[in-house]
Design goal:
This protein is an alpha/beta fold. It is built from eight helices and 13 strands.
């Protein structure tokens, strides 16, 4: 499970979320990676929050990493921030909209960190082989591939489950981004979403037998979140969500 709040909003929210998720995943013997972005560079509106400052956000993530002894995943957006992020993060994530940015991918891979690259909404799954070659060119073969949906018209996304098979043929782990695949991009000043379908989509993806992990964003109070308020799952639903997913994956008895 890769999970956490979309954005590092403050230390209280990040700590509460990390503590809760660490306990729930430990109970279920799940590998847990804490996810939160120190900055959101891609926002629908100029008024949307981009973060509390890179240095402060990364310091908070570093404290979470040390206190709970869990790996950290965070996004990188430009080559000049990669080195700083890599000092804290165990996994550097290439956002979907930047999945063709050669310089960024190579700079991230050159750190030696694990690279999670999200398939762009505009890319076919077989196009990810080109991104993989960019990472491998640095000598780094620690790669995760994440499916987060494909543009379907102007304000919607659809997940083609055949993508899991295509991505899996690369030999690298395939992750399904549950909550971002339910976004409705750029609806008015903010992106909307349909998180009520999250469990259904997660169970369906796991039922293919081709998904190695789930990615999702969760928040103690999604309605008050500064980023992706319309897609993050309430923290309180996560235990039942995980149990339902583990049953589908054959890792938990009824």
């Amino acid at each position: 499970l890769i999970a956490g709040p979309c954005l590092v909003e403050n230390e209280t929210i990040v700590h509460q979320t990390a503590e809760f998720l660490a306990k729930e995943t430990e109970k279920r013997n799940l590998t847990f990676i804490f996810k939160s972005s120190y900055r959101k560079a891609n926002r629908t509106s100029l008024e949307s929050s981009t973060g509390i400052g890179d240095d402060l956000a990364l310091q908070i993530l570093e404290r979470i990493r040390k206190e709970f002894q869990i790996p950290i995943l965070t996004d990188v957006h430009e080559t000049n921030e990669v080195e700083k992020a890599a000092r804290t993060a165990d996994i550097l994530q290439i956002p979907a909209f930047l999945s063709r940015q050669t310089d960024l991918i190579i700079a991230a891979a050159a750190t030696g960190r694990i690279i999670n690259i999200k398939k762009g909404q505009f890319m076919a799954p077989d196009d990810m082989s080109k991104a993989i070659r960019k990472i491998l060119s640095t000598g780094n073969n620690q790669i995760l591939l994440t499916e987060r949906g494909t543009s379907f018209g102007y304000h919607d996304l659809v997940v083609d489950f055949r993508s899991f098979a295509v991505l899996g043929r690369t030999g690298y782990p395939v992750i399904f981004d549950v909550t971002h695949s339910l976004q409705k991009p750029s609806q008015g000043d903010y992106s909307g979403g349909t998180p009520e379908y999250a469990l259904m989509m997660a169970k369906a993806a796991l039922a293919t037998g081709l998904v190695d992990g789930l990615f999702l964003e969760t928040h103690p109070d999604p309605a008050a979140a500064l980023s992706d308020a319309h897609t993050q799952l309430p923290l309180e639903v996560i235990p039942d969500f995980l149990d339902a997913c583990l049953k589908i994956a054959g890792l938990k008895e009824d």
